[in-house]
Amino acid sequence: MAPDRFEGIDGPVTTVLMNVEEHASYSFRSPMLLLEALQFPGSFVRWNDSKDNRGLRVVGEHVIGLAAAAGEYRHSGLTDPRDDKWLMEVVWERGAEMGLFLLMGTGGREVREHTGMESFFLVTTAIIRAMYIDGGMEAVASVLRSYVDYMAQMDLGHEHG
Q1: What is the pLDDT of residue 31?
Q2: How far is the CA of 131 from the CAs of 11, 58, 71, 97, 156, in angstroms?
Q3: Which of 21, 20, 1 is nearest to 11 (CA)?
Q4: CB atoms within 10 A of CB 98
Q5: Residue 106, phi then psi, degrees to nearest 5
Q6: Nearest CA among 121, 120, 144, 122 for reference residue 132
Q7: How far apart are CA 20 and CA 137, in angstroms?
Q8: Residues 6+ positions from 78 with CB-CB distance below 8 Å
Q9: How many CB atoms lie within 10 A of CB 124?
Q10: What SUPFAM superfamilies does this protein's entry cite (predicted)?
């Protein structure tokens, strides 16, 4: 049975929301934010008059960058823009872990092989932005933990290839 916080959202959509939360290791206080993040062209998760996720995804990229810079700074006192490629890989990994391939109409195939690459990244960033609105930077940092762990193990003084 779905928690009360999903009241008013139909069963199949609630199942998707709970699945994304489980794989993201984050429970939204306001699941409508997650529902909004999942509104994109081609998504089978459509809900009444929900907006698309444009507003969430635009700011999501900035939130992710800020969380990454904060993690880098904590570990080294520096930030290194050359490491963005590692951060983007973490965003991809987290999106895959959340089961977003299944929402993209690809039948579960890797989106990288599809024309939906950009959409996949944008949906993941929209979800991360929704987490920021819902739970603050701490929620975002927990989602990006593998990036922060990576930063803790690397030497920021060397370029990565």
Answers
A1: 87
A2: 22, 14, 17, 16, 28
A3: 1
A4: 22
A5: -105, 0
A6: 144
A7: 19
A8: 72, 156
A9: 28
A10: RNase III domain-like (SSF69065)
Cβ neighbours for 137, distance < 8 A, ≥ 6 positions apart: 63, 66, 67, 70
DSSP code per residue over 38-67: T--TT-S---TT---SHHHHHHHHHHHHHH
Per-residue pLDDT of the chain (161 residues; tens, 9 = 90+): 556 888 877 777 788 788 888 877 889 998 888 888 877 655 556 555 556 555 555 555 556 666 666 655 555 555 555 555 656 666 667 677 766 666 555 444 454 444 455 666 777 778 888 888 898 888 877 777 655 565 555 544 444 44
**pTM value surpassing 0.70:** no
Burial of 47 (0-12, 13-18, 19+ CB in 10 A): middle
Phi, psi of 2, deg, nearest 5: -75, 145
